[in-house]
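FYI - complex with zinc ion, inputs then prediction.
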Amino acid sequence: MSKLNKRGLTSKYLFKGRLKFKTALHVGGGKINVTNTDNPIVRTPEGFPFIPGSSFKGAFRSMVEKLAVSIPGLRTCQLIEDEESFKGKSDEECLRIIENKDADYCPTAIHKEFAKWKQNKTETELITMLEDKLCNTCTLFGSPYMASKITFHDLKIGDWAGVTQIRDGVVIDRDSERAKDRLKYDFEVVPPDAAFDMEIWLENPNPTDMGLTCIGLNEFLSEMAYLGGIKSRGLGNCRIKDLEIYELNLETDKKEERLMKYLTHTKPEDKMENISDPSHFIQTQIEALF
Ligand SMILES: [Zn+2]
């Protein structure tokens, strides 16, 4: 069964800006190696450094999850497997726990048991269960069962030095905390001050989805965020600059007018309403979580 995405469009948001790096950035795993290093960065087929949307999403999600844990009334499984709830239980007992209205778990965290439960369920039964049980961060960022409401586009490089750098590292022995003799490696980085074009889309958010998204954005606005690898050396410290927010909200009496504008224009800026004060918007959405 493909992932469920059940509703029509009711609202849509675009968060657009630049991700500006204070320190150098290493997003590894590249297949195009133009510098003969042990650890090349990822590049587009044209050879430009970029940040895969999945890397940005991963950093954004784990940052939001860490903070969501501390917010009263919110649930997050942090994608950590729930081994306790079902330990030593028979299949029937596991199914009974899943059916129990008061049981507190996220289906993502108990995926083995949940896969058994959903075998002979209808799509409606599955949706009802997921709406009830998925944690707040799986609802927003997606789970093996339900599509993500938030989409992070690949980030194209804008301003940058035009050349990458190779840095040396040493392999540290974890026991002695000393560098192991001759165990050196090198890695490629995009030099400090590079900026990438950022686009995040959010579809049909409920107030919690929106609040959590704004918590993530606010961390990235505060220069508290790190992206990519080798963070222990301070790499990947970045902030969002020039944030713009665009909104399509069809849950108003202006529905037809807004829908027409959305359907007949091509640029996001023309299709949707501009939120005039992004900082105030973000603050309001976060406050609404409490
Ligand atoms: Zn979850």
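The chain has two domains: 11-76+140-287, 77-134. Residues 77-134 form one domain.
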